[in-house]
Amino acid sequence: MNIDPIIMTNLIFCIIILALGITSYLKMKRTWPLFIGIAFGLFGVTHLFNILDMAEGLKALIIVMRIIGYGLVLAAVYWYGCRKFA
Question: What range does the domain containing 51 cover?
Answer without folding.
Answer: 5-73
